[in-house]
UniProtKB/TrEMBL annotation:
Membrane-spanning parts: 6-25, 37-65, 85-106
Domain of life: Bacteria
Organism, scientific name: Marinobacter psychrophilus
Name by which UniProt lists this protein: MFS transporter
High-level lineage: Bacteria, Pseudomonadati, Pseudomonadota, Gammaproteobacteria, Pseudomonadales
Sorted UniProt keywords: Membrane, Transmembrane, Transmembrane helix
Length: 112
């Protein structure tokens, strides 16, 4: 792997991170009209878990790809092993963010 390819890899992740932050910020502004705090934060946590979970590529060692993108692509191609690895990472990210969401609801309740 040469230096130019590595630079493009990091450039992709920088652009993806900035885009993800902007997308979640816009969704937060859009969802603020929902009446329940728990529902708003659950939807944002689900979006963050789906969009931010990475998975390591089985083709190139050390390269991480967004799990939704990699899993969807591998499902279309028919590689169920690679798609299941991506779905496992999505499930783990969902469980972690569910725990964070519950702790946020406890914090919100104690603050009020």
């Amino acid at each position: 792997m040469d230096a130019e390819l590595q630079n493009v890899y990091w450039l992709f992740w920088a652009a993806y991170g900035v885009g993800l932050v902007l997308f979640l910020w816009m969704m937060q502004r859009l969802l603020r009209f929902l009446p329940f705090y728990g529902l708003r934060t659950l939807l944002l946590a689900a979006l963050a878990a789906i969009l931010a979970a990475p998975v390591e590529s089985i083709d190139i060692a050390g390269w991480w790809i967004p799990a939704w993108l990699y899993g969807g692509y591998e499902l279309i191609l028919g590689d169920s092993v690679a798609a299941s690895a991506a779905l496992l990472n999505l499930a783990l990210a969902g469980m972690v963010l569910l725990l964070v969401w519950i702790l946020d609801l406890v914090r919100y309740r104690m603050k009020r």
